[in-house]
């Protein structure tokens, strides 16, 4: 079974209907494909079985996470080139059914079955989420999903995020700035949009490791309640609060946003949390936050958005992200988010896209992970570290290509008189 690489390359090109843009390197030492291009490395026959039994994005993801498949060369270039390898994607791609009717493709597939060894489907890597029956976005399933993503280990996240410990899009003055400065500027931008003043109460929904709560209390003199569903995050945040001497101004709770009942608050920040809420719960989320705000209070909702489709019924969740990164996470178009906030009673006063900033942020996170790879893999496990490297690099490209975006939506709960409390020229934060 020598020259497995040529056989793999030929099949990929049959499926794509175009020359393969990357090299293929197989476990038998063979190589095929354009010289100088990044190489898709299949380390064993199991990689082929994963692609045969689950063709498309999930099969590729399983092979990557398990270490059966790797990339030799620049990761971003390789991801850009191989994005068309997923069968279902691409305007000119033939359907799977049409491909399987092609005698040449069927012959190549039979050869790959022989090449792959025993025709048994490999078990998914242990990092893959095991699905449970029942409704999405109950308090129980949300706790489980959040734990999967955030309870990876605080030491691991320190490697990726750096001293700021902020796990959301930074706000860059220049591409050459530091990650710490850009994250501080993002937190300050949120505080400025909320117009925080000493003595006010701030609810930070999805408070993470406490960075927003600490910044708002220390720099603006507000009292903060931060809520998270992650036990590990809460423990870490409480220690940071104590080390800063801010325990009299900051309370960190392990609490679902649906269980907060001690309003009213003067302001609410929700930074990178609403992606976990889900479409069927989003109006409830907006209504709950509206009820927790005093009249005249402001909400800053910082959220990733997908592009709307002509036919929304055809939208499907990214298989890799759903299985390995954000279980049950859902992205909505910006217009949908604004509509739901307004349905809940909010008046949306400002929308700012900071899409390019997230590409810069993600590339810094990937660089930090790669620079301390051995320790990161030891702390979180090699499979988990590979998940984070792939998803962050792929997301950086998605933001840069304008496939997805991220927006800060500033909304107010107007007074009964209709007064928003906003100045005539509000964008003084710029």
Describe this structure in words.
- The chain is α/β, with parallel strands linked by helices and 430 residues long.
- The chain folds into 2 domains: 4-115, no CATH class; 139-429, Rossmann fold, CATH 3.40.50.
- 44% of the residues lie in helices and 15% in strands.
- The protein is built from 17 helices and 11 strands.
- The strands form 2 sheets. Strands 7-6-5-8-9-11-10 form a 7-stranded mixed beta sheet.
- Helix 15 (355-371) packs antiparallel against helix 17 (382-400).
- The radius of gyration is 24 Å and the shape is elongated.
- It starts with a helix and ends in an 18-residue tail after the last strand.
- Residues 87-93 have low confidence and may be disordered.
- Its EC number is 2.1.1.-.
- Keywords: Lipid metabolism, Methyltransferase, S-adenosyl-L-methionine, Transferase.
- One of its GO terms (biological process) is methylation.
- GO terms for molecular function: methyltransferase activity.
- InterPro entries: CFA/CMAS (IPR050723), CMAS (IPR003333), MeTfrase_dom (IPR020803), SAM-dependent_MTases_sf (IPR029063).
Secondary-structure arrangement, i.e. CATH architecture of the largest domain: 3-Layer(aba) Sandwich
Largest sheet: 7 strands, mixed
Helical residue percent?
Answer: 40-55%
Task: Determine the strand fraction and express it as a percent band.
Answer: 15-25%
Strand order within the widest beta sheet: 7-6-5-8-9-11-10
* Rg calculated over all Cα atoms: 24 Å
Amino- and carboxy-terminal Cα gap: 63 Å
CATH topology of the largest domain: Rossmann fold
CATH superfamily (homologous) name of the largest domain: Vaccinia Virus protein VP39
- The count of helical stretches stands at 17
Rounded mean pLDDT is: 89
């Amino acid at each position: 079974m020598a020259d497995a690489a040529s056989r793999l390359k030929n099949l990929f090109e049959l499926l794509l209907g175009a020359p393969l843009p990357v090299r293929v390197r197989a476990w038998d030492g063979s190589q095929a494909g354009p010289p100088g291009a990044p190489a898709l490395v299949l380390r064993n026959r199991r990689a082929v079985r994963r692609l045969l039994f689950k063709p498309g994005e999930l099969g590729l993801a399983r092979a990557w996470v398990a270490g059966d498949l790797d990339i030799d060369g620049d990761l971003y270039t390789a991801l850009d080139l191989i994005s068309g390898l997923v069968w279902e994607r691409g305007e000119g791609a033939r359907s799977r059914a049409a491909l399987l009717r092609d005698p040449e493709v069927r012959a190549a597939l039979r050869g790959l079955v022989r090449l792959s060894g025993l025709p048994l489907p490999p078990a998914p890597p242990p990092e893959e989420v095991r699905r449970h029956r029942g409704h999405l976005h109950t308090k129980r399933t949300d706790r489980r999903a959040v734990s999967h993503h955030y309870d990876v280990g605080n030491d691991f996240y320190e490697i990726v995020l750096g001293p700021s410990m902020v796990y959301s899009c930074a706000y860059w003055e220049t591409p050459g700035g530091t990650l710490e400065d850009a994250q501080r500027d993002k937190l300050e931008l949120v505080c400025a949009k909320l117009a925080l003043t000493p003595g006010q109460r701030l609810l930070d929904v999805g408070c993470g490791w406490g960075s927003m709560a600490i910044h708002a209390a220390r720099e603006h003199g507000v009292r903060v309640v931060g809520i998270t569903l992650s036990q590990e995050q809460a423990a870490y945040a409480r220690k940071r609060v104590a080390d800063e001497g801010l325990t009299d101004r900051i309370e960190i709770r392990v609490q679902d946003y649906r269980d907060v009942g001690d309003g009213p608050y003067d302001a609410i920040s929700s930074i990178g949390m609403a992606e976990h809420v889900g479409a069927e719960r989003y109006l409830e989320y907006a209504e709950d936050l509206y009820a927790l705000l005093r009249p005249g209070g402001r909400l800053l909702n910082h959220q990733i958005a997908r592009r709307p489709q002509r036919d929304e019924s055809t939208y499907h969740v990214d298989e890799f992200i759903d299985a390995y990164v954000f279980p049950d996470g859902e992205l909505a178009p910006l217009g949908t988010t604004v509509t739901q906030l307004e349905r809940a009673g909010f008046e949306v006063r400002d929308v700012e896209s900071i899409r390019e900033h997230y590409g810069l942020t993600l590339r810094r996170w990937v660089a930090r992970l790669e620079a301390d790879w051995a320790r990161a893999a030891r702390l979180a496990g090699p499979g988990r570290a590979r998940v984070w490297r792939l998803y962050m690099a792929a997301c950086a490209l998605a933001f840069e290509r304008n496939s997805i975006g991220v927006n800060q939506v500033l909304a107010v709960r107007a007074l009964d008189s209709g007064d928003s409390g906003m100045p005539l020229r509000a964008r003084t934060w710029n």
